[in-house]
Amino acid sequence: MTSPKSLTKTRWVIDANRVVVYPHRISYLLGILVALVFACIVVAYLTSVHGDTFTTVCFFIFLVAVPLWFLGYGNTYVEFDGSRGTTQRKLFGLIPVKTMYMNDLHGINIVTQNGGYKYKMFSKKDRYGRGVLVSSGYRKNTDANAQAFVDQVVPVIHGYLDKYGSVAGSAPQPITSYKYYNNTGGSYTVKSKKVVVIIFSLIFFAVGIYAWVAHWAEDVSPTQKILVVVICLGLGLIVLQAAFVSIVFDTASQTIIKTGPLGWGNKSIPFSDFAGFQTIRKSTNMVYTGTEVHMYYRLPNSEKNGTILLHTFKSSGEIERFLEETKSVMKI
Predict the structure, then answer these.
(1) What phi, psi does 187 have (nearest 5°)?
(2) What fold is seen in the domain 174-192+245-332?
(3) Reduced to 3 states, what is the DSSP secondary structure of residue 100?
(4) How much is the pTM?
(5) How many Å separate Cα 50 from the centre of its chain?
(6) Whether residue 92 has pLDDT greater than 90
(7) Looking at CB atoms within 10 Å, which of 127, 130, 198, 311 has the fewest?
């Protein structure tokens, strides 16, 4: 018997020269839930409301169309045609909405977001952009469906990309000048935009001071007033600390040094403990706000990795350039 949870998992079909993946199957479950809610609305409408015929027909069309849209969207798939060298996304499994040639694709990468992860296909020109979703979302690293997807599907698709062009794309050019680092005698300091962060911290300070002296606060208990002021000043102090955090790649000592004016989160990481990079796309209310570039490093006497936030960017080109410069500094 098919469980509701299995309806949300990625499904795929692998033929001789073709792979089809269905990454939006959670829409099936959403469609069923919406249909149940709308069925209750229909019953309530028929038993208590008596509108004109036109209004009733429009209302019922809407109640039927929305669940059908969700159920249809669950059939949306991405097709990788190895014989033609094309990748195509079909809405509802019927309408072609995006076609890409495999020699323009970089490969499938994992994307971490909101405590979970998913897999997306990226182009060579936009390796850190939105990408094309090719899997459902997962929460656990041990998810059987995710492991099967990586073991069975990804190698076949990357095999197609190898056939029509290298997955890695063209080799990076040697770095001769640095855009995102200040070089002072072999110490490379990550450049940061302090002005914007300082402005945010001043806003918190101003709100805290205003809450203390404003007339409207006279009707608030002293405890509540102090709490508001402390929270605002505390947030301002945290943001101000972040503005003056320094991350230095010292090539002489082969060490990454992170320091701040208050000493919060100071770190000293040997180059040899480097464990990889990860980019995390951030959004607020479904609006893209930027991509964070994190570096992972091995923790001593532990199987877990630590992480350090290096920078935040908006464009894929900026991220790619920053990573190339970082690898050049570390000679990796």
Answers:
(1) -105, 120
(2) PH-domain like (2.30.29)
(3) strand
(4) 0.71
(5) 48
(6) yes
(7) 130
